[in-house]
Specification:
Length: 614
């Protein structure tokens, strides 16, 4: 049987029913006819609902120091949350002095976040990398100075002490482990008796009450604090669940590593678990050669109903599942859908997932993604088409209106709806710039319709408008498109690329290797590092082949990369070249690696430069 004719696992999804209108100014307006369902806008009302329905069901779980699952039921979470909330009311936190969480995902992180939101106190989960991987704490200082928190929470008091001392030594600190002198133990906080004041304060929460402040990753500049209100977040939970109704009533069993300081892991995965009465097992692994081992250990014990990941995570997982029948059968035993975000999924990864599903259960699964952003809490579009392909973003969710505005030969996507942020924390200038005269949020993302006459067929990503530039001929170069084509041509060996050529006569690129796949390709990981890989003949040959393939497929100067150089260095987070989630800041790399760009545009081809010649 050919794979393309294989049936899909039957799961309910919301059928597209999109209305398309064209305004007098030529803007395209798209929205669904499906009305958004009603629901409470107070986040922890949903926790209370499940406490009354399923108090003994596991809500959150995480391995303890002995490797055993520490499980917290909905009933236990509610009781602890009320005590923590009572304690917080005795501290200097307020709407103007939120709680800063510096550490990563944990049961305790989830409980203190819920307690803060239960009493209308904003909290901000800040990337742990700003505390643990940085040497000058410049991004942490920026976030803390903007936030002006009244209290800090960390998982390990000793581990974060240096960062805290550097940026906020005057603030009270709650720590779970290795509690230092002057810090408060989380266990002591949990012993606080619930108070009547907690209930009274909870009753004052409205839809526009600020729930959290999520800092953007800084891929286009300094991190901005995106405000997510209770109404923003709960609206998006309803939008997502209406799109994928199989999630309802405990339909989510997740094993997930995605960080809660990002909207995908926090608002989406943690939030959907809470909203739908599911269970979230915290995976302390990640898509790295070391981290994937932890993930595999967890997947041997937990069978997810939906598996959320970034494309790199799926790519790491495929060969392991293919080689282990027992693991693969367990993994697919409850699985209904793959969902990826954060980057485009290479088609070979997509095909690999479909083949694995067919080999295991005799059917293919829905592979879905959409368009999301921190400012949309996070979801705006979803693809629900079975048998789709990589790059399909789908259609707007219920309760959201999308406007496509002409920008040169592209269409910028703009959104309006209850899930959209009211703006940026203490940054009125940035807030004003990001909304248009009709109140639509300007994404900077270019989209195009699959079929202009059939809006139900959905949208395709068409690059970031702000990254594009012109060659000296006046021809536009679409950076996002070129990066995607180059990565695809690299067949896995190219992780990313920085595209150069503003006001030059041709396009060039700085190639960022996928170190793990390069090591696999050359069959040696014992003596390699990024410098040696960049000079390895096999790596150079494969990158040259990718450059040649792109060149022969090109239609002109705006679609041909003439020269490239392989980066033999790690990108610098402190300089803003890369975010903690791995996104590359094109502008920062081009600024800080100016000598490489000059190398690529030298009159004669310099040593180490690869060149495409027809």
């Amino acid at each position: 049987m050919e794979l393309k004719k294989t049936p899909f696992l039957d799961i309910p999804t919301l059928a597209p029913d999109i209305i398309k209108k064209v305004s007098a100014t030529g803007d395209i307006i798209l929205e669904t006819r499906v009305a958004l369902e009603e629901g409470s806008s107070r986040i922890t009302d949903h926790l209370k609902y499940w406490v009354e329905k399923i108090p003994n069901k596991v809500f959150l779980a995480q391995r303890d120091e002995n490797g055993q699952w520490e499980k917290v039921t909905y009933g236990e979470a509610w009781k602890k949350m009320l005590g923590i909330a009572a304690y917080l009311l005795q501290t200097p936190v307020s709407v103007e002095k939120p709680i800063a969480i510096l550490s990563g995902n944990s049961v305790e992180h989830g409980l203190i976040a819920l307690a803060a939101m239960h009493i209308g106190i904003p909290y901000s989960p800040i990337s742990p990398a700003y505390s643990l991987r940085s040497t000058d704490y410049v991004k942490l200082k920026h976030c803390m100075e903007l936030l002006t928190p009244g209290l800090i929470f960390v998982q390990n008091g000793k581990q974060f002490s240096k960062a805290i001392h550097a940026v906020a030594s005057h603030l009270p600190v709650i720590a779970v482990n290795d509690v230092l002198e002057g810090q408060t133990s989380f266990d002591e906080v949990c012993k606080t008796e619930a108070s009547e004041e907690v209930g009274n304060t909870h009753g004052t929460i409205q839809s526009d009450t600020i729930a959290k402040i999520l800092f953007t990753s800084g891929s286009t500049g300094w991190p901005k604090g995106v405000i997510n209100t209770h109404g923003n977040i709960t609206t998006n939970w309803r939008q997502i669940t209406q799109t994928f109704p199989f999630m309802k009533n405990g339909g989510l069993e997740l094993i997930d590593w995605l960080p809660w300081n990002h909207t995908f892991g926090g608002n989406h995965n943690f939030g959907l678990t809470l909203y739908n009465g599911g269970t979230l097992y915290i995976d302390e692994g990640n898509p790295t050669p070391k981290g994937i081992k932890t993930t595999i250990q967890n997947l041997r014990e937990v069978a997810p109903t939906v598996y959320f990941n970034v494309p790199k995570g799926f790519e790491e997982l495929i060969p392991i599942l293919r080689a282990d029948d027992t693991l693969r059968n367990h993994f697919f035993s409850q699985l209904k859908m793959f969902f990826y975000a954060g980057a485009s999924m290479p088609q070979h990864v997509w095909d690999g997932l479909e083949q694995l599903a067919y080999d295991t259960i005799g059917k293919r699964l829905l592979i879905s993604t959409g368009l999301g952003m921190t400012e949309a809490s996070p979801s705006a579009l979803f693809n629900t088409e079975f048998g789709s392909q990589s790059g399909m973003l789908g259609v707007p969710v219920p309760g959201l209106r999308m406007k496509l505005v002409r920008d040169g030969d592209k269409l910028e996507a703009r959104f309006k709806g209850g899930n959209l942020t009211p703006g940026y924390w203490r940054n009125p200038e940035a807030t004003q710039k990001v909304f248009d005269e009709d109140g639509y949020y300007k994404t900077g993302d270019a989209l195009k319709m699959v079929d202009e006459n059939e809006p139900n067929k959905g949208m395709l990503f068409d690059g970031r408008i702000s990254e594009d530039f012109k060659l000296d001929t006046g021809t536009w170069v679409r950076v996002g498109v070129m990066r995607s084509r180059l990565i695809k041509a690299g067949n896995g060996i190219i992780r990313d690329a920085v595209i150069a050529g503003h006001d030059e006569s041709y396009i060039s690129a700085i190639i960022i290797l996928d170190q793990h796949l390069c090591e696999k390709r050359i069959g040696d990981s014992t003596k390699t590092n990024i410098k040696s890989l960049a000079k390895h003949p096999l790596v150079i040959e494969e990158v040259q082949q990718a450059l040649n393939q792109l060149g022969f497929e090109s239609t002109g100067s705006s679609t041909c990369i003439v020269k490239a150089i392989i980066a033999d260095f790690e990108l610098d987070m402190d300089k803003g070249e890369v975010t903690d989630k791995g996104s590359i800041n094109q502008r920062a790399v081009l600024t800080h690696r100016r000598e490489l760009v000059e190398h690529l545009y030298a009159p004669q081809t310099m040593n180490g430069t690869l060149e495409f010649k027809k």
